Amino acid sequence: MAHFHTEFLLFIGYCLLNVYVLVTYWKWSLGLVLLYLGYRLTRMKSRLTIAGKAVLITGCDTGFGHHIAKRLDDRGFTVYAGVLNENSDGAEALRSRKSQNLHVIKLDVTKEEDVNKSLEYVTNNNKADLWAVVNNAGINMPGDVELATVDQYKKCAEVNLYGPIRVIRAFLPLIRRSKGRIVNVSSVRGRFSWPSDSMYHVTKHGLETLSDSLRMEMKKFGVKVVIVEPGNFVDATAISGREMMKRIQREVDFMWDHASEDVKETYGRHYLHRKLKCSFENDGKLSMSPVSDAIEDAIIAENPNIRYLVPGYFLDIYAMIARVYCFLPSWLTDIIVDRLTGYSSFPNQN
User: Fold this and answer.
1) Is 200 a known active-site residue?
2) DSSP letter assigned to residue 82
3) What is the pTM of this model?
4) In degrees to the nearest 10, what's the CA dihedral of 234, 324, 65, 277?
5) Which residue has the higher pLDDT, 19 or 251?
6) DSSP states of 197-235 as a string?
7) For 121-279, where are the E strands, in sequence order?
8) Rounded to whole angstroms, how far apart are CA atoms 244 and 238?
9) How many CB atoms lie within 10 A of CB 132?
10) How many CA atoms lie within 13 A of 261 on its CB side?
11) CA-to-CA distance for 156 and 132, rounded, in angstroms?
C-alpha cells in the first residue's frame, strides 16, 4: 500500500508541475503543443504492406517474443521464432499452430554457432525478404555490486548485450538489402539506474547506446533502428515464473557462496533473500498486448518512432521515472529511488 501511495503522490506532483508550467508559460506551452501536433501529422503515413516480408525474433520460448511471434504469424508475416530450447513448452506451442509461415529455430544468442546456423537457415529457406530482426531475448539477475560476481555480470551481458550484437552483425547484410528494421527490446530501466540491479541496468543502458549508434550508422542505407522500452510487465511475462525464480535463487546462492567473510558479515544472508523477494513483489501488467502493439508498429509503420516507451499500467512508476530521469538533478532522483526501494538502510539478519 505504501508503494501505491508513493506512486500516487509522484503522479499528482507530476500533474501539478505540468499545470504550473502550462499556466505560467501558456504561450510557450501552446507553441510547443502546436509544433508537436504538426510533427505528428507529418508522420501519419500509411503502413507498409506485409506480403513478402519475413521477421526474425529472438527469445520466443516465453514472454514478449512468444506473443509477438504468434501476432506476426496471424498478420501474414513469415516468422522465424528463435527459441533457447527446441523442446520447451513455448516452442511446442508455436509448432502446434501448424503454420507454414512460422519456423521455430534453435537460437541461443550467446552462441556464435547457433547464430550462424540460424542465418544459414533463414538464407536457405526464406522466400520473402528479411524485413526485420527483433532482439527480444533477455534475462534479469538482481544483486548488489559488492555481492554479484564478475562472471555473473558477464553471463547477463552475454544474453542482453552481446547477444543482440551477434544477431545484428550476422543478419544486418540481409536487413540492409531489404532496407528494413532492427527492433531492440530494451527496458525503461535502460534510462535510469536502480540499486541492487546493476547487472541488468548495465546491459540495458548498453543496448540503448548501441541502438543509438547503429541508428545513425544505418541512415545512409535506409535501415531504421527502433528501441522498445517496456515498463512493469512482471505479471505478464515469465520473469516471476517458477523456473525463473529457481534460476534467480541459484544465482543468489552462488553470490553468497563466493562472497568474502567480511561481505557475508556486513550484509547477512537475509539481505539476499529479501532482495530476491522484493525484486518480484510488484504488480505489473497482465497483458503483453501493449508491447506487442509497439513492436508491430515498429515493424510495419512507414515512419516508426525511434523509441516506444510502454507503461505496464496507468501509474507505472518505472515508466514515470524513465520519462523525467534525465531532466532531474541526481540528488532528487536519488531521493525518489531511495524512497521507493529503501536500499540505503537495511536490517542485518543472518
Assistant:
1) yes
2) E
3) 0.85
4) -20
5) 251
6) BHHHHHHHHHHHHHHHHHHHHHGGGT-EEEEEEE-S-GG
7) 129-135, 181-185, 224-230
8) 7
9) 25
10) 0
11) 24
